[in-house]
Amino acid sequence: MEDKPQYLASGVSRREVWSWAMYDFANSGYTTVVITAIFNAYFVAVVTRNEAWGTFAWTAALAVSYALIILTAPVLGAYADAYAAKKRLLFLSTVGCILFTALLYFVGSGDLWLAVVLIILSNFFFTCGGNLISAFLPELAQGRALGKVSGWGWSFGYIGGLVSLGLSLGYVTWAQGQGKPAEEFVPITMLITACMFALSCIPTFLFLKERALPQPHLSGRTVVREAFARIGDTVNHVRDYRDLVRFLACIVFYQAGIQTVITLAAIYAQQVMGFDTGDTMFLVLVVNVTASVGAFGFGSVQDRIGHIPTIALTLVGWIVMVLLAWMAEDRAMFWLAANFAGLCLGASQSAGRALIGYFSPDARRAEFFGLWGLAVNLSSILGPVTYGLVSWISRGDHRLAMLITGSYFIVGLVILIGIDVPRGRQAALRAGGSSATAEG
Asked: Is residue 289 part of a domain?
């Protein structure tokens, strides 16, 4: 019988960790193709017909989606914990994202409201799924190896994004060679993305286990009222989780910068650097490779040098990236900035997820990852909308908007300094009823 690796939790096999990571592989096609590389630029150039308000309309649509997540994520997490329903809710969110992504096929020139509604819904379900799959992480890895396993999953995810984007790029290249306009070939890439998501997530639902057990319920409470009551209890004991709260505040700011880059990279490349659709897709494809390397490499680094130094290092990298993109006058420097962003993207996303897992009590993992989702989605409103407003007010000055984005990384770095990781871990262990020496 094969020995279980020391970094896995009791009863967890390599196959189950792989099936968990396959969800990152599956859903990354959505954020890569729809949010980052293709549909966002298509929305501005074709759907809004290059109107001055096009970029702001895109960021506003995403903001509505993220606002819905902010209102629902912690409650869904609390429900998932109370009823051991993480996997069931994950399935529903996955079906929703796949369905509404496929329906983007019907969006053409001038179909503003159809595009807005479908983006709001598809991104809502995508983000719900991301929060829920992350809540499985502390069940799969030892506490001292959360960074490593999180890094593997995120690294594998970027490879999934690479595959979806590569298939889309192959089709787009062929279609452009046939003289087809974007309105004919971009919708097909939405179907490619939806199909890849549907096929790639199958192992997750076959092999990933729901280890949590339903918890004692509050008598006389409906499901919704009980979920809110659990959130209320967490709020009443917020002082016990001060390091978690500080890190969530840190996430709001540094993720505001990250989400801006993810959401507007293709628009910046086309509007400032003169990239066409094919150029942009190839750029994002290469950046996915560097992001995968960053997530994989920094996952092990995080477990060795610590959570805070790792995240601080990536935030400094993000600040350098913003300055490079702002100064770029030719494609060579912009390519350098983009790949710098890739390395920092993979590392910072993976490291943040691992630290949330480290700070999460056993009985409230989905709830705390719901709070993580709340912070990330608040940042997803703050950053892109700031960028959209600046570009609108400045009559299309994307360089200024990019420079202002860098301020979010600076604020995040300042907040990060005050976080005490051992104290935050002890709070999680006390709340979970675990021994202070358990699993690192």
From this structure: yes
Distance, CA of 41 to CA of 344 (rounded, Å): 23
DSSP element (H, E) containing 418: none
Tell which residue, 174, 188, 312, has the closest CA to residue 250: 312
Whole-structure pTM value: 0.76
Long-range pairs for 94-97 at CB < 8 Å and ≥24 separation? 94/27, 94/125, 94/129, 94/197, 94/201, 95/125, 96/121, 96/122, 96/124, 96/125, 96/128, 97/27, 97/30, 97/122, 97/125, 97/126, 97/129, 97/197
Q: How far apart are CA 356 and CA 137, in angstroms?
A: 10
pLDDT digits (tens, 9 = 90+) for 198-255: 999 999 999 999 887 666 655 555 556 666 666 666 666 666 788 988 999 999 999 9
- Domain assignment of residue 201, yes or no: yes
**Number of domains comprising the chain:** 1
Residue 26: HSE in the Cβ half-sphere, 13 Å Cα cutoff: 27
CA 299 to chain centre: 16
Token readout for 173 is 């290249």
Distance CA 165, CA 193 (A): 8
pLDDT in tens, 328-369: 888 888 888 888 888 888 788 778 878 888 888 877 777 777
420-to-137, 333, 353, 372, 415 alpha-carbon distances in Å = 21, 37, 17, 18, 11
Indicate which CATH number applies to the domain containing 427.
1.20.1250.20
Range of the domain at 71: 15-432
Q: Distance between CA 391 and CA 260 in Å, rounded?
A: 12
pLDDT at 1: 38
As a whole number of angstroms, the distance between CA 236 and CA 333 comes to 50
Residue type for position 197: F
Instruction: Say if 160 falls within a structural domain.
Output: yes
Q: Is residue 425, in this structure, part of any structural domain at all?
A: yes
